[in-house]
Amino acid sequence: MEKLIYVFWRGDEDPVRLRERFVSEVEPKLLALGVERLQLNVADLGDLSDAVEHLRLSSGDATKPDGFVSFWLSSAWRREPAERLIAGAFARIAGYSVVESTVLPNVAHPPRAGERTYGFSQVTFLQVPPRLTYEEWRNIWANDHTRIGVETQANFRYVQNVVVQALTPDAPPWRGIVEESFPPEALRDLHVFYDAVGDEARLQRHLEQMMASCARFIDFDRVDVIATSEYVRQPQPEPRL
Description:
Blueprint: E1 2-9, H1 15-32, E2 36-42, E3 67-73, H2 80-89, E4 92-104, E5 120-126, H3 134-151, E6 157-166, E7 176-182, H4 190-193, H5 200-217, E8 224-232
Antiparallel strand pairs: 1-3, 1-4, 2-3, 2-8, 4-6, 5-7, 5-8, 6-7
Helix pairs in contact: 1-2, 3-5
């Protein structure tokens, strides 16, 4: 099985209307094609001007997307019918074949079919900085940063999607797509985000650890972050080991 992610830009369409249209018109057709573990993440949370700083990062207005659709197929070679449906549903798409690593499974707030998953999902689109080789970048992310990403934040789901190949022309040069689920309060409260409620010293310690770790493998003018609602059409227990 192969996981595919189609990042999308909505153009002028209202994000709530987009979600409703996708669920009613596009989702049934994708399921009829036999896709598995269908998931929609859409940036429909409204004004985020007062959100924590990490949710406002962008490498440029023309680059920052509005969400993604992901699913599994037996092979990306068979993607054409699904890709055609998705391309017709959004103003712009960028498709990727990825390897999924579920570092932290969602056992605290498991999704339910047809319902919005608890909290919000922070989605981060990573590029390889010119100062690093791909091997150096991947090693820092996978072997050094992963532990810090779990230990310093209040995320209850953490998924690393390593890009194998771009599937569509002119896809941005992202090499990693991260999904992290947080409680709703973390959207605007750093203490909640960094698992440091009522403890200022712990907040500063976690914040410094996270920023120092990120700076090792991320150039902040080459990263895009969006806060999304997650909708999982075919929930299934995520592996614990």
